[in-house]
Amino acid sequence: MDDGSLATVLLAMFAGAIRVSTPFLFVSLGECLTEKSGRINLGLEGTLVFGAMSGYALSFHTGSPWIGVLGAGVVGVLFGAIHGYLCKLPKVNDIAIGIALMLFGTGAAFFFGKAYIQPQAARLPSISFGGWSDDSAVQQALEINPLFIIGFFLAVAMWWAFKNTRWGLIVRTTGDSTAAAVALGINVDRVRLIATSVGGFFAGVGGSFLSLSYPGSWSEGLSSGQGLMAVALVIFARWNPLACFEAAILFGAAGALGPALQSVGISQGYHFFNAAPYIMTLGILIVAVSPKRSLKGAPAELSITK
User: What are the boundaries of each domain within the chain?
Assistant: First the structure.
């Protein structure tokens, strides 16, 4: 590979990393918040898919993609609230409820979304940061969606809030020790319900990016398991919102590797490179459960730590 081809691949990976990482970023931040409160929500995959469908449908009917984004977030709140309410019932397992909601969300999205596979909805606009260059490839690579920028500032805000605010202390205490939270007069069920609902909002917004920006259409295979991979991403990030942003970029770059190589004519092993995010997820889970590193830093009240 010559220098020109290498530069093309790196540029394509940079652009692809930003695009592909955005839904990972929002879902991982939602799961990070949920798990910080002591609960796991595997149902975010269903929330992501239903958010993609509902956001696309609202954008199609209203002509406003931002209404679609907001609507997808509201749907995410509903899914999160259902998960949060069911999980506070006696002898209910949050992982089982999450799987049930994942299946329900994806199934409902496929059922209600059949009418929106062909119609074209208004897509989210991008902000151009490449006006300084005459190279069209550079200009295209620096077309960045506002949701990516919002996600970055959201990660910073969450990281700061967990460390410096009373709200952050309440969430962390609830996730680390139910007994300590109750002793401090904290309503544990309420905190976890709110955290799960807000986490659902983030996942719904991440889903709207898939249908309204990249790839920018609604289809039944849109998610490709990104909601589930985000759970591994949170473990990899050690429940740190800033690390979630960095890990989302890494996953995004892995997902962009195959298309980037194909852009310079390298097609051998294309499907293997497309599997890079899934291979990375498997590797992260193997490392995460190793005896030397097993779930280090995890909130103590998570069901997977007991």
Answer: 3-305
Strand pairing of 127-128 and 143-144?
antiparallel
CATH 1.10.10 fits domain 3-305: no
What CA–CA distance (Å, rounded) separates 147 from 21? Answer: 11
Q: What is the pTM of this model?
A: 0.91
Residue 1 has pLDDT above 50, yes or no: no
Q: Is the dihedral of CA 147, 149, 150, 154 positive or negative?
A: positive
Q: What are phi and psi for residue 259, nearest 5 degrees?
A: -60, -35
**Does 48 score more than 90 pLDDT?**
yes
86/63 Cα distance (integer angstroms): 35
Strand-pair partners of 128: 143
295: its two tokens: 């779930």
Write the pLDDT tens digit of every residue in 244-276: 999 899 888 887 776 666 655 666 666 666 677
